[in-house]
């Protein structure tokens, strides 16, 4: 189920390009009419419902992805209520919580002086916006947790957010830059917010803006680099009076988040519904991909059992067949039956003629890559009539082992072909067969097959 592709083809090119670059209004791009946003929401909602209600998904696959399905249900509820989530990322002490409090107009998020006070994700509704469907999300400081956990948190929160505020207070540190790359890789529009701007003169701000534009090129659009002051402060200054005497005074540094508010409101008004639809569709697309992987893994497990069953059946049939070369023809029929069985398992039914054509292609490549094995196969077939007793048993088991092995290779290659939608892909049959052969330890596999067949034959003779 290619949910992201379905949403993607309904969006205007300018929006797709801007979303991928973390920008939404560069070069005077036109706003999205609300009717388009409603259409995107409807499309995403239908896609999520389709994913949740798909009866073809096995129960064990659903159970293994229970948390992801729970998130999709939450996203569906979010879309139906018209909610938009804005998450904030940043190091400890850059003023993330203060910035959110300034947006809310009240001290809701903790701004404790204790290092790393924010230990978990916290969400509050932004009532100031007219539709009041916007929720602001605070997160732990990215330098408070180790690299693996930090990346996991960034993935999880960004995947559930429609827009990201990445807060810094100066040039990006290495930790910040790596976290920023992780967040923007999730294809969520990202605003780089430089907080505590009151510490810089106008010239210093211009220099810092230039540095950040250069370092974040391709990650954050230039107009999405915004300077703010989230907390009011008092600054001691020295001034000279008209008599040339110096005096100490205090200058108030007020909160200044007007540029950020304006940018957020512009984004929400123009593209809020579309951003919510994209976010949900991206996450659902990820889940859809994971579902496909799990189902394919189950099919491969069942396919492996099926191939092994046919390997034994063919090995025994060849070992017991007393007529030289005729057993090779019977073996081809068994291989064709196995491929048809596998094709049904993968939901790509093929005819017996198609199966025969596939076998001929695989065997031709095997002959080129391992002609000596097939020489043994033919010699063993001819020797059957000239031996007797235990010699016949051993000869038959040897030839049966080769037949067992050839069916294993045919089955693995056919399974690869089916798993790729009945296509060889870029590698072609020769490289596919070669890769399968390289993955098998021929000596150990043939020994295993021979012993398995001998055990069966001894039971048959003794019985």
From TrEMBL:
Q: One Pfam annotation, family name?
A: MMR_HSR1
Instruction: Give the matching InterPro entries.
Output: DUF697, GTP-bd, P-loop_NTPase, Small_GTP-bd
Top-level taxon: Bacteria
What membrane topology was assigned to this protein in its record? Multi-pass membrane protein
Alphabetized PANTHER family for the sequence: TRANSLATION INITIATION FACTOR IF-2, TRNA MODIFICATION GTPASE GTPBP3
Where found, per UniProt?
Membrane
Q: Which CDD domains match?
A: Era_like
Q: Which UniProt keywords apply?
A: Membrane, Transmembrane, Transmembrane helix
**Sequence ranges assigned to domain G in this UniProt record:** 85-196
- What is the taxonomic lineage of the source species? Bacteria, Pseudomonadati, Pseudomonadota, Gammaproteobacteria, Thiotrichales
Q: What is its main location?
A: membrane
Q: What is this protein called?
A: GTP-binding protein
Source organism of this protein record: Candidatus Thiothrix phosphatis
């Amino acid at each position: 189920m290619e949910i992201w592709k379905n949403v993607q083809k309904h969006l205007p090119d300018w929006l797709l390009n801007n979303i991928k670059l973390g920008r939404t209004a560069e070069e005077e791009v036109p706003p999205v009419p609300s009717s388009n946003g409603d259409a995107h929401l409807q499309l995403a909602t239908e896609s999520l419902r389709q994913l949740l209600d798909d009866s073809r998904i096995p129960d064990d696959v659903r159970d293994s992805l229970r948390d992801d399905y729970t998130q999709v249900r939450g996203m569906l509820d979010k879309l139906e209520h018209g909610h938009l989530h804005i998450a904030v990322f940043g190091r400890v002490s850059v003023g993330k919580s203060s910035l959110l409090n300034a947006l809310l107009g009240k001290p809701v998020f903790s701004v404790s002086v204790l290092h790393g006070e924010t230990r978990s994700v916290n969400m509050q509704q932004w009532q100031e916006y007219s539709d009041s469907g916007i929720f602001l999300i605070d997160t732990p400081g990215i330098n408070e947790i180790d690299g693996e956990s930090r990346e996991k948190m960034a993935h999880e929160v960004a995947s559930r957010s429609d827009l990201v505020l990445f807060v810094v207070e100066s040039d990006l540190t290495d930790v910040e830059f790596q976290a920023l790359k992780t967040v923007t890789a999730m294809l969520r529009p990202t605003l780089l917010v430089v907080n505590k701007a009151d510490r810089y003169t106008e010239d210093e701000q211009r220099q810092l803006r230039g540095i950040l534009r250069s370092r974040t090129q391709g990650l954050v659009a230039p107009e999405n680099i915004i300077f703010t002051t989230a907390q009011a402060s008092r600054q001691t200054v020295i001034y000279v009076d008209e008599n040339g005497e110096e005096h100490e005074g205090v200058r108030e540094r007020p909160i200044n988040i007007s540029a950020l508010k304006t940018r957020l409101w512009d984004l929400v008004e123009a593209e809020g519904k579309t951003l919510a639809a994209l976010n949900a569709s991206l996450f659902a697309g990820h889940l859809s991909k994971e579902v496909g992987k799990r189902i394919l893994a189950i099919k491969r497990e069942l396919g492996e059992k099926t191939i092994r069953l046919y390997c034994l059946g063919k090995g025994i049939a060849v070992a017991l067949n007393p007529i030289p070369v005729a057993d090779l023809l019977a073996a081809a029929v068994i291989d064709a039956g196995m491929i048809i069985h596998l094709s049904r398992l993968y939901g790509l039914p093929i005819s017996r003629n198609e199966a025969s054509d596939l076998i001929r292609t695989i065997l031709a490549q095997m002959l080129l890559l391992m002609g000596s094995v097939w020489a043994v196969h033919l010699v063993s077939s001819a020797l059957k009539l000239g031996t007797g007793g235990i010699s016949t048993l051993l000869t038959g088991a040897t030839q049966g082992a080769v037949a067992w092995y050839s069916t294993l290779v045919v089955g693995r290659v056919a399974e690869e072909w089916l798993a790729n939608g009945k296509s060889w892909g870029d590698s072609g049959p020769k490289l596919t067969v070669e890769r399968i052969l390289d993955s098998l330890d021929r000596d150990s596999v043939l020994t295993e097959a021979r012993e398995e067949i001998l055990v069966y034959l001894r039971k048959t003779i003794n019985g």
